Amino acid sequence: MGFNNNITISRACSQRVNSVNRSFNNSNVNNLEHFDTSSFVERLEKEGFTRQQSEAIMKSLSEVMNESMQNLTSNMVTLTDQEKIVYTTKVDISKLKSEIQIVEKSDFNTQGGVRLDLNLERGRIKDESRVLEASLKETHTKIESEIAGLRTNMETVKFQILQYMIGTLTGAGALILGK
């Protein structure tokens, strides 16, 4: 590299370092170095940069890397936040499980109640059916006895009519013969 290029790079780096310093001083970025800064400065000096230029480039590169790391970590979740989220998720899942169990118990109790109601209703219907059958049999028996009584009465009336007819025919025959 030529000397003019070094000056241009040095000025650009110095300007960048100053503007980055202003924006980073207010931030909560950990100023950990993500590379070996002293060996980087030494390497730049071996390539022909002055100590001041090398330090300016190193600071600029370090600040760019810090900014990149800040951008990366701003989208990340801290371990504590992740543990909180996991804990609240587990609590929510536990609550959901207990609610499901309550609903299942309620559903089971409701099904049991419905089964009990159905069995009671079935028993009531059977009882009513038995009562109706007994009433029907009683009515049938009454009808049969009435029919039997009517048949007996008809036979009696028939016999009496036959007697009167025989008596009348005998009397009429005697009158006819006696004349």
TrEMBL record:
Transmembrane segments: none annotated. Keywords: Coiled coil, Membrane, Mitochondrion, Transmembrane, Transmembrane helix. It is found in: Membrane; Mitochondrion. Gene3D superfamilies: 1.20.5.340. It holds the Pfam family CCDC90-like. One of its GO terms (cellular component) is membrane. Its main location: membrane. Coiled coil: none annotated. This is 14299_t:CDS:1. It comes from Funneliformis mosseae (Endomycorrhizal fungus).
